[in-house]
Amino acid sequence: MNLLIMGPPGGGKGTQCEVLTKEHNITHISTGDMFRENVKAGTELGKKAKEYMDNGQLVPDELVVAMVKDRLSKPDCENGFLLDGFPRTTPQAEALDGALTEMGIKLDAVLNIAVPREKLLGRLTGRRVCRSCGATYHVIFNPPKDEGKCGNCGGELYQRSDDTEATVNQRLDVYEAQTAPLIEYYAKQGLLKEVNGDQDIKIVTQDVLASLGR
Ligand code: ADP
Ligand code: AMP
């Protein structure tokens, strides 16, 4: 199954991906995670991406598209993939359509996790992420059993440097201007499944799985 998950920053995409990838045995492709790995490793791509990420701006389309095309060609995508955080602009969506056509594959569904903007600042500033396995927590809505420690792997939890109030507001403006129009783009292709993301995490998971026919 080839899936795409959309929604605003803090909408709960990464959280739902943890379940979806296990349930469908597909590979999680998060462009945000890929950029953060490149920044950490100090690659040329990471150096270029960092300034955009720190300012809450989008990394230029050509860099993102090349990175995703390369990733989709890896053997672990053959059984299916879950794209998270890509595409974020109309040119990225068009490039994805072209790449999938070239590969002779199609998207099976596009999930849109909808959450009102006023809920997102609190979700993002309270987010904590595991340095080792990438699992996502929230200080109030999804706290780890032991403070600062991942419940899956025991790894250290940290706060993303772009999860500050000023950067979050910029990211939400960018989302509304550049990414939200893609909801209509995929609705027109008949692929869109809308899920109410403004509910308890477990209920959102139930709705996500149900929308895919499980
Ligand atoms: P995204 O990947 O869309 O940016 P995340 O999955 O990282 O979003 O979620 C952002 C923050 O909100 C995290 O701290 C997460 O634990 C929390 N969160 C996710 N889903 C919900 C929900 N349904 N209700 C409350 N908090 C949530
Ligand atoms: P995320 O982890 O999805 O919140 O992404 C973190 C940051 O990485 C974003 O604010 C962008 O700067 C960058 N980024 C991730 N995915 C994309 C994309 N598809 N297009 C452009 N920039 C991206």
Question: Could you write a compact summary of the structure shown?
Answer:
This protein is an alpha/beta fold. It is built from 9 helices and 8 strands.
Beta-strand percentage? 15-25%
CATH class: Alpha Beta
- Count of the separate structural domains: 1
Separation of termini?
Answer: 13 Å
How many helix segments?
A: 9
The low-pLDDT segments are none
Radius of gyration: 16 Å
Main structural class: alpha/beta
Assign the CATH superfamily. Answer: P-loop containing nucleotide triphosphate hydrolases
Query: Which molecules other than protein and nucleic acid are bound?
Result: adenosine-5'-diphosphate, adenosine monophosphate
Give the ordered list of helices and strands. EHEHHHEHEHEEEHHEH
Main pleated sheet: 5 strands, parallel
For this entry, give a set of tags.
214 residues, alpha/beta, Rossmann fold, 9 helices, 8 strands, globular, binds adenosine-5'-diphosphate, binds adenosine monophosphate
Structure explained in plain terms:
This protein has 214 residues and is of the alpha/beta class. It has one domain (2-116, 168-211): Rossmann fold, CATH 3.40.50.300. 47% of the residues lie in helices and 15% in strands. The chain contains 9 helices and 8 strands. The strands form 2 sheets. Strands 2-3-1-4-8 form a 5-stranded parallel sheet, with helices on both faces. Strands 6-5-7 form a 3-stranded antiparallel sheet. The longest helix is centred in the last third of the chain and has 15 residues, at 165-179. The radius of gyration is 16 Å and the shape is globular. 31% of the residues are buried. The mean pLDDT is 97. The site of adenosine-5'-diphosphate has 20 residues, from helix 1, strand 6 and helix 9. Residues 9, 31-32, 35, 52-53, 56-59, 64, 85-88, 92, 171 line the site of adenosine monophosphate (AMP).
